[in-house]
């Protein structure tokens, strides 16, 4: 009986002794990260953690020793006194000194974290239900970043991929060796832009702009993944962040590509598209931007997200259909897609919605019709 | 002279009581003295003065910690 008790106690003690190794395996601790700030935060976290551990060891050590040493069975009698000025001063002074000792390094790290001055690259990040929008200020580059995990993976109709719910169509590309300032806001509800590897976690609040920054050292090029950290609605888990750190030269080339792509896209809108081309493009756009709410088969979701299959607007009112995609519908979850999709993409997705799932109208919506509707 | 000294001691005693209230520690004997001797107004004045001093110390500490 006693042997078993001691065996259990030993297991607990051994578990506590080897806890750091065990935590590393389970990934319980926060990541060290790749930036100087993330490393400072990690060091501060560990410093405070060990201070708390030692306070716990001392306080509980004294308490358990006293309970054991002065137990009733040994004839101990509790002392009865009302006040002890010296003791009270001591137990007030010690925590005060510890708190001040903790505040000094904490303040230093906070000042480091909040110093958003002298940035080389400024990126405005806007949270939407449920995607992120990135605008590179002064560079004429901006885009939306949508989840690319398929609904088949989400609903277990196929095997989940390696980066399940952590993959997007457009990465937020940043240069290494440059100070990047993030200006974070929201278009609808409160989101939070969280990328653990660079220790940035900021609320995105409608009407406010929160600032943060990161300087990814040269040599740390690669992909870093994060997610929305504020419960923001039914698809909160479907708006990940993928940051791609590249060299300064690669970043410049990427900016040039983005600008060239924008010009090419505008020119393409004036070209001719066949019904089949629009249907193929429309199916892709629908899967990425619409299926989350309206369902993969246009069946809708409850009373909030109406079905498009058999919908009067998708079968009859073409002008109304174009208008709702371009301008959204106030008072509902239907947002404007003007900034998110190109004219070709809007034309394609409307054509798709008017001809898929039995909506066989046979109608084609051209990019020129979208350009005209926007005027 | 003695009267002046006595007044100074009283003020110091008030200051000590106010500082003790800041940290929440006071001996029973001293607390009874404070209540018996009265001087509520003076206690409030010293308390307000100490509060202003505390705010000045905090503002100075924050300004000195922040980079210029």
Give a quick set of tags describing it.
heterodimer; A: 375 residues; alpha+beta; Helix Hairpins; Immunoglobulin-like; Cytochrome Bc1 Complex, Chain D, domain 2; 3 domains; five-stranded mixed beta sheet; 11 helices; 10 strands; 44% helix; B: 68 residues; mainly alpha; 85% helix; elongated
CATH level-3 fold name of the largest domain in chain A: Immunoglobulin-like
In spatial order, strands of the major sheet of chain A run 3-2-1-5-8
Helix content of chain B: over 70%
Quaternary structure annotation = heterodimer
- What characterizes the major β-sheet of chain B? none
**From the helix content, strand content and strand pairing of chain A, which structural class follows?**
alpha+beta
Q: Segments of chain A where pLDDT lies below 50 for 5+ residues?
A: none
Number of domains of chain B: 1
How big is the Rg of chain B? 15 Å
What pair of chains forms the biggest interface?
Answer: A-B, 9 and 8 residues
Question: Regions of chain B with pLDDT < 50 over 5+ consecutive residues?
Answer: none
- The domain count of chain A comes to 3
Secondary structure tally, helices of chain B: 3
| H/E topology pattern of chain B | HHH
Run of helices and strands of chain A: HHHHEEEHEEEEEEEHHHHHH
Can you count the beta strands of chain B? 0
Shape of chain B: elongated
The N- and C-terminal alpha carbons of chain B lie at a distance of 49 Å
Residues in β-strands, percent of chain B: under 5%
- Report the top-level CATH class of the largest domain in chain A: Mainly Beta
How is this structure best described in words?
The complex is a heterodimer of chains A (375) and B (68). Chain A is of the alpha+beta class. Chain A is built from eleven helices and ten strands. Chain A folds into three domains: 23-114, Helix Hairpins; 121-266, Immunoglobulin-like, CATH 2.60.40.420; 269-374, Cytochrome Bc1 Complex, Chain D, domain 2, CATH 1.10.760. In chain A, the strands form two sheets. Chain A has a five-stranded mixed beta sheet with strand order 3-2-1-5-8. The longest helix of chain A has 34 residues, at 36-69. With 68 residues, chain B is mainly α. Chain B has one domain. In chain B, 85% of the residues lie in helices and 0% in strands. Chain B contains three helices and no strands. The longest helix of chain B has 26 residues, at 40-65. The chains are: A alpha+beta (375), B mainly alpha (68). Chains A and B meet through α4 of A and loops of B.
